[in-house]
UniProtKB/TrEMBL annotation:
The lineage of its organism: Bacteria, Bacillati, Bacillota, Bacilli, Bacillales. GO terms for biological process: diaminopimelate biosynthetic process; lysine biosynthetic process via diaminopimelate. GO terms for molecular function: 4-hydroxy-tetrahydrodipicolinate synthase activity. The gene is dapA. Belongs to the DapA family. This is 4-hydroxy-tetrahydrodipicolinate synthase.
């Protein structure tokens, strides 16, 4: 299943008291859909999922589904390191009406590949909507090996993987050994173009909050055979891609959105806001762009 080329891993706006700001969420959704986002991933890493309660996630998904109104796919980040909890939350996301769930590799537990397989199989067996695997060893400690992802792709409603491994060899193996109906998305902005050239369906991006149109243009240039122009745009965007991870995400991109006129508030502890020097660094990035 192809959810589009540029999906945004959406930040969660907070008000001054640290609660979800649903009015700003509405503004952000409309802004993203007008500026290059083909779909939204809600309550994932960039949405500060570890600090969102179950009730907050459910309320957020309901709001996003309502505001989006079917314009683009809404993918709910419903996974955790607890299989039972992941199953229950995924079932609730399905009832709300999301288009798919994204399930992260269980973190902290450090399961073996067989355990990983059984985890995703259990979630997929509990819902009727598409399931996206989220492979992010930098945060989960464990890496879902290509062979495991390939095996999981044979489960009918496991339709996609977000590969945030930075490993193009693994991506190529998955792309070549899964059916055409199985999609792979890079989870690393700086690999948007390189992964696309080897057959990825697109990117689940942080930077698309602020350069979504430019990322769409880059991929379109590649599709049109204008490889040199696509590469030049990649080089131009690379400082933005790297800058959005110059501090723990999503603090830089929330600052970038504030500069763009959309104040999504601060971050929740244990994350902390950017200091003044870091804020200036983000502002200088956009002045140079």
């Amino acid at each position: 299943m192809n959810f589009g080329k540029v999906l945004t891993a959406m930040v969660t706006p907070f008000d001054k008291k640290g609660n979800i700001d649903f009015d700003t969420t509405t503004t952000l959704i409309d802004y993203l859909l007008d500026n290059g986002s083909d779909g939204l991933v809600v309550a994932g890493t960039t949405g500060e999922s570890p600090t969102l309660s179950t009730d907050e996630k459910i309320s957020l998904w309901k709001h996003v589904v309502n505001v989006v109104g079917g314009r683009v796919p809404v993918i709910a980040g419903s996974g955790s390191n607890d299989t039972r909890a992941s199953v229950e939350l995924s079932k609730q996301a399905e009832q709300i009406g999301v288009d798919a769930v994204m399930v992260v590799a269980p973190y902290y537990n450090k399961p073996c590949q067989k355990g990983l397989y059984e985890h995703f199989k259990a979630v997929a067996g509990a819902v009727g909507i598409p399931v996206m695997i989220y492979n992010v060893p930098g945060r989960a400690v464990v890496k879902i090996e290509p062979e495991t992802i390939i095996a999981l792709s044979n489960i009918p409603n496991i339709v996609s993987v977000k590969e945030a491994t930075g490993d193009l060899d693994s991506m190529a193996a998955i792309i070549s050994k899964t059916d055409d109906g199985f999609s792979l998305y890079s989870g690393d902005d700086n690999l948007t173009l390189p992964s696309y050239t080897i057959g990825a369906s697109g990117i689940i991006s942080v930077s698309s909050h602020v350069v979504g149109k430019e990322m769409q243009k880059m991929l379109t240039l590649h599709e049109q055979g204008k490889r040199k122009e696509a590469a030049e745009l990649h080089q131009k965007l690379l400082p933005i891609f790297n800058g959005m991870f110059s501090a723990p995400s999503p603090t830089p991109v929330k600052e970038a959105l504030r500069i763009r006129g959309i104040d999504t508030g601060s971050v929740r502890l244990p994350l902390i806001p950017l200091n003044p020097d870091q804020q200036n660094d983000v502002r200088n990035l956009f002045q140079s762009l």
